[in-house]
Amino acid sequence: MSTSRSVALLSSAAIVFSSLVAVAPAASADDKPGSAPEVTSAVAHDTSPPLRELAKMSENLPSLVEPSPRAVLNRPIPQDRIDAVINGSGWVPPVISDPTGPEPNTEMPAISGSFEGLNNIAGYNPPDTVGDVGTNHYMQMTNVKFQIWNKSGTSVFGPADNNTLWAGFGECGTTNDGDPIVMHDQFADRWLASQFSVSGTGFHECVAVSTTADPTGTWYRYQFDYTGFPDYPKFGVWPDGYYVTYNMFNAAGTAFLGAKTCAMNRAAMLTGAAVTQQCFDRAEEWSLLPSDADGSTPPPLGSPNYILGEHWSDNTKLTMYKFHVDWATPANSTFTGPISLSVAPYIGACWLGVDRGRCVPQPGTSQRLEALGGKTMYRLAYRNFGDHESLVTNHTVAMDGQTGLTAQTGVGWYEIRQPNAATPQVYQDGVTADPNGSTFRWMGSIAMDKQGNMALGYSTSNATPGANSFPSIRYIGRKIWDPLNQMAQAESVIMAGSGVQTGGSTQYSGRWGDYSSMNVDPTDDCTFWYTNEYVQTTGAGNWRTRIAKFKFPGCNGTPPTASSSIDGLPGNSSVDVAFSAAATAADLPVTKYTVTAAPGGASCTTTPGVTPDPLTCKVTGLTNGQ
Question: In whole angstroms, what is the distance from residue 74 CA to residue 126 CA?
Fold first, then answer.
């Protein structure tokens, strides 16, 4: 007979709660591999000079900043999707209980470091704030500037125009159009930076991969061309490729063409070689996200990249695809799906009948901010824990179930386990909102550390004037042993705003986001880094950004160990067992022990603090020989 402890760090904790898990259905009947991918080559590639030399080159170019303010293009939800909802059988009303407050005596870990990021020195709105942390640096990109710091917050490069990275490299270097992404590839200790080029003679995605771990050094640069407008690009790092998703529009930007998902040959890009990409298109999908691997353990060999988004027209489902790329024989590449994942009904915030989803109130002004409901928000963070794999993501939802203006927005979030199984498992399905019923939470980004703790960062705002009402940056989270489906750790503030965004042009006013970024430090796999925008001084486009880090206590601790076997006192078809509790480590409590008979598998459980030490329990249902 053997004992197994239920420590939050380990898989046994998941087993304890398995009865509460909602298992998603198998792939729908129309699940089938897609047709052969579209294969194209990068139209140009080279190796750049060091970044400081690129900065000198870009200084000789004419100014690219248009008169302030300027709105960066981002197309609204396609009318086809709106029609599918309106003309369909109707959405299922959401059932959202009152927001669950934090557990007693719990609070998010304090900020351990924080510094100012970029502000709106270029006159663009919104910022499209994104960043990531590497071995020695933090790199942030916005519309249309970037900057690099060491991890103490000292700037080592910039701010500089994003297209500095592509100076002397065709239209990627002569346009500066935004929608940036920056990511650290922890498996290679490299950096990836991108933005689109759409104001020149064609539509390009400009991608750069650092040649070393130092982002201030040289970069391999690539230009990928598209026949349509490649809006809202989102990247993910995966062992066999850099995956990217787009919302595609016609050249005029007036007609939605569908969602495009591409895999770029990562192995080739890490060496600066010529590279191809393989792409699949889906007409009735919107704002899909590619999975982005966190942690030091890669996905199992041969795992597909997981592509996830809201269902096109059913608010009780998420949609998943599995993208398996074959670089040797592209005809063997597959884009399998759609796979429908059943979730609690949700209503995307403010995306039906509200101009550009502007519904988030601010104090002292009638100007509302965009909620960006109707899409899953960057990132789709993946982690391989060894005994299970998890994906986490989030979206902004209406807490009152209204499809138009809403009284409050919250953040719906999900953990999907075993994504490569025939039936991926929706392990957690939760919503977090301010219990006051009036503060809006939106523009979220979520990730997990190596222990399985989660952190969710987001924007907040409230119409009622007060010190805590201005557009601000906050964060919340859960420890691995917290009750399922709850962000049980109390909300904390990263940066409190002190001003509001006022009106400007129709295109410019109310723009917010369009995304933020929660990432995990690869050096300890515990420290979360988050960046988002806030408003300090009232104005039409006076956004600023903040970069902050924090860590759950105990993440780097040594978990307690339990005896591998114990003896018991035989009874009538049962055995009574008694044993001493394991010594606990700081912030790594043992929440439950499970004693399992071998052979046979019969078990009993006991809880420290409830059952006195020595701990006891009775294994029943035994037969001779067990």
Answer: 10
